[in-house]
């Protein structure tokens, strides 16, 4: 049996590494930013588009797919790969983040005091057995537990799945974070037990919680490592700002053994990818490239630290490509003026072109970062991009 994960090359000056995760649906080259297809679709792109762009892995969402169309329908369709016609590597999250974020609010909700998007959704009870909540679709009462999440994820049939954890929010105190982390550890044992019972070939990732507290992160790191899941995720509150987040990642990665792939949940801005990779992170997922695209915020190599707002009036008669250095089919064939017009006219193609460009841009960025590690040019890569 081949190893699940192979390290091909280690950077000399940092923990950055290039590797391969071997799955039943092909090899996944790392570092990798998984492309988020929350509801079994990367909005506006077909699997053929994703292949052309060079997307290595799609991440789908257990919470949303459980509510609609349901894991049983997906299983009858032959599993998620067949259902959405994506035959490459796939990851599903546990549903924990979604169910808890609607109960606790996310960091950005907390900072901006934004109203909850789904007014009907609500956490009714969090207990040792699991979480009772109301569906945002119809208000029906639902339960997610370690066992149920693992059962759902195995019916969906992704190559890599996540343990069910309590995603501790940003505002709670250390005591809450500790109790929550300890429950997450008991839940991890239950996830592993359930997963072994199902005799599934799917690879389970345990999740390191512990908030921003070094001693809790240490305990969580040791616990998850000892649990012997084939992969590890870093989750939960990573702090109020990027430097705190990098500190949390640093302390976890300094302690973790190098044999397993490590995934940083829900993070993936350009600077975060570089800072994560140099600390030893192998895979990431982030909704920002696709979500930003739908709001007309596009990547450009001219300003890696900010986005080009294509809807701005300055682009009305700008007949150059979105990014002159991008070799995606959008930048080869369309102008800023045309994409600006499509957005102003509310034409669907605008969102599709914007999404295609953003996904291509960031996949290309990660691919180049990987190549730079393989060729001992990681420092040069960082300098070139201003990171
Ligand atoms: Zn482009």
Walk me through this protein's architecture.
By secondary structure, the chain is an alpha/beta fold. The protein folds into two domains: 33-286, Queuine tRNA-ribosyltransferase-like (TIM Barrel, Alpha-Beta Barrel), CATH 3.20.20.105; 297-382, no CATH class. The protein is built from 16 helices and 16 strands. The strands form four sheets. It has an eight-stranded parallel beta barrel with strand order 4-5-6-10-11-12-13-14, surrounded by six helices. The chain has a three-stranded antiparallel sheet with strand order 1-2-3. Helix 8 (174-198) packs parallel to helix 9. The longest helix is centred in the last third of the chain and has 27 residues, at 348-374. Residues 322-323, 326, 328, 330-331, 357, 360-361 line the site of zinc ion (ZN).
């Amino acid at each position: 049996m081949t190893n699940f994960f192979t390290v091909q090359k280690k950077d000399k000056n940092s923990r950055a590494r290039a590797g391969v995760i071997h799955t039943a649906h092909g090899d996944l080259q790392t570092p990798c930013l998984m492309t988020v297809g929350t509801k079994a679709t990367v909005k506006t792109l077909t699997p053929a588009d994703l292949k052309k762009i060079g997307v290595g892995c799609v991440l789908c969402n257990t919470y949303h797919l459980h509510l609609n169309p349901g894991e049983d329908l997906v299983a009858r369709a032959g599993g998620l790969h067949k259902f959405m016609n994506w035959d490459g590597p796939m990851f599903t999250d546990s549903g924990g983040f979604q169910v808890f974020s609607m109960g606790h609010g996310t960091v950005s909700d907390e900072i901006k005091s934004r109203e909850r998007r789904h007014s009907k959704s609500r956490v009714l009870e969090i207990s040792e057995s699991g979480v009772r909540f109301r569906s945002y679709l119809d208000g029906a009462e639902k339960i997610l537990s370690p066992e149920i999440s693992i059962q759902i994820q195995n019916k969906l049939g992704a190559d890599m799945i996540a343990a069910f954890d309590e995603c501790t929010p940003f505002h709670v105190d250390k005591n809450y974070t500790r109790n929550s982390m300890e429950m997450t550890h008991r839940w991890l044992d239950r996830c592993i037990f359930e997963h072994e019972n199902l005799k599934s070939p799917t690879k389970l990732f345990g999740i390191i919680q512990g908030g921003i507290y070094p001693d809790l992160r240490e305990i969580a790191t040791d616990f998850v490592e000892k649990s012997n899941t084939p992969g590890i995720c870093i989750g939960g509150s990573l702090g109020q700002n990027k430097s705190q987040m990098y500190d949390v990642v640093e302390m976890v990665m300094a302690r973790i053994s190098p044999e397993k792939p490590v995934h940083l949940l829900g993070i993936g801005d350009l600077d975060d990818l570089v800072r994560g990779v140099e600390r030893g992170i192998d895979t990431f997922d982030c909704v920002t490239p696709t979500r930003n695209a739908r709001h007309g915020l596009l990547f450009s190599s001219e300003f890696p630290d900010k986005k080009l707002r294509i809807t701005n009036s300055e682009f009305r008669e700008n007949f150059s490509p979105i990014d002159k250095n991008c070799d995606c089919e959008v930048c080869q064939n369309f102008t800023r003026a045309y994409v600006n017009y499509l957005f102003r006219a509310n034409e669907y193609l605008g969102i599709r072109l914007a999404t295609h460009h953003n996904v291509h841009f960031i996949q290309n960025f990660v691919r180049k970062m990987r190549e730079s590690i393989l060729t001992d040019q990681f420092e040069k890569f960082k300098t070139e991009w201003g990171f």
